[in-house]
């Protein structure tokens, strides 16, 4: 796990070492253990290393292989041992115990298709001397970041946006800002909040030709479902998913440094923590570390659940309890670390968890991201779920499912589900919400980006999950996690997002994933053998929720003052109308407007 940098000179002159070093130093926090550079004829690579596998100097990057390839790489290919054994049989020789060298040998053996064999998270660039190209890739779901910018005489890429800012005037992307302010959307396209700075999306490769200085972007992976798995019985589905989840956790425990886990007390993190602890304690004899962020607000405090899990799984539980002053003191720092505006104060809770991980020396942390998106954990999935059941098993089966949801979901009732299923509530809510949130917005002739997304059909549960994974939900969560963890030189690993585990989860019949009204039923059955029933069969879910009411109330005056001083917002909003109705605005909307106002000051962002 590291940070990468790259600069290509379109004038074909060599890059000065000071230029690549400057943007590489910007991300020193991503790799405090080592740094390295490679200067090509008309390009340069930089690297910051966070040593996780093979802590020796053999893991130094940029790494060369066969005197033909040079790589700068950030991530972990968890199945590197299996691939290495395959390559050894083909006669390949290795000089280190790193996954980096396995990537290089794989590229030599299979070319661009090598990424199809990788199970993990990555963002890398490989210079191929013979072809005179730079082959770049980002993992299937975009766990690790890859930003790039193309200007008059440079193509620049890196792990963070701040590396690219010296090459631009820091102009705001108006379309992305509007999507964020109105709908709260972030990370839903390849564009960023900074005009001209893009991100290579998950499941894509970028091939840059150093002769013509043109590049092409290719998709190498599509999320698909398996009809054979979809037709399995409940028992077979449970056994299949249990096997895949355990395999996913096993390979994510491969590390030469201390591994721990995030623990909110909810089903997903509790499942990962308990399953991993059994394996970790057995193999290493060291008590597995878990870190929990306790809310100071009683209604959002899950610490008692975290304690129950810790006692049950024999975890060494570390609890952090950020106070209101901590939140206020770290506003600028967290917004700086995130680089782009975000949804709300819950991001701060995750930040403090990673801060604690660094304090106790846990360089690697497991986390439960992806459980809800793959196993139907969100309430908003219910309409598509029951339509799916209706199509496959008939009206009575769908009706029974709705009734069961009324019994076993604390936030759901039969009337609400019924309205959801017929789609009228979703449609009317979106129209109403759009009208309310745009009442103070200036009118634009162009279509807002998010409107193209939310106009798509929601009737297919698979299509809905795919959109959540690729656009709506997961990309934002992964960005928050990466920026918060790497700010503290921490690597996070996500077992639910193993692509094979995800494939099985999405393919399993919906009626097995939502059964008896219980969401994520299969996971509940699997961990019912090792976790207390009070955890397994909880009806409510929070997940590192911040005490929003307390924290945002404490800065309400500051929010209004900051918004009033913004130079960007007057270009988008009717400020007189906005400020006169400020007290009646939705709390989340206030935060978004405030976030923009702070972000623009920190990064000196302008708008056309």
Automatic annotation (TrEMBL):
The keyword Nucleotide-binding applies. One of its GO terms (biological process) is asparagine biosynthetic process. L-glutamine binds at residue 99. Its EC number is 6.3.5.4. PROSITE patterns: GATASE_TYPE_2 (PS51278). Pfam families: Asn_synthase, GATase_7. One of its GO terms (molecular function) is ATP binding. Keywords: Amino-acid biosynthesis, Asparagine biosynthesis, ATP-binding, Glutamine amidotransferase, Ligase, Nucleotide-binding. The active site is at residue 2. Residues 2-211 form the Glutamine amidotransferase type-2 domain. InterPro entries: Asn_synth_AEB, Asn_synthase, ASN_synthetase/amidase, AsnB_N, GATase_2_dom, Ntn_hydrolases_N, Rossmann-like_a/b/a_fold. NCBIfam families: asn_synth_AEB. Belongs to the asparagine synthetase family. This is asparagine synthase (glutamine-hydrolyzing). The gene is asnB_1.
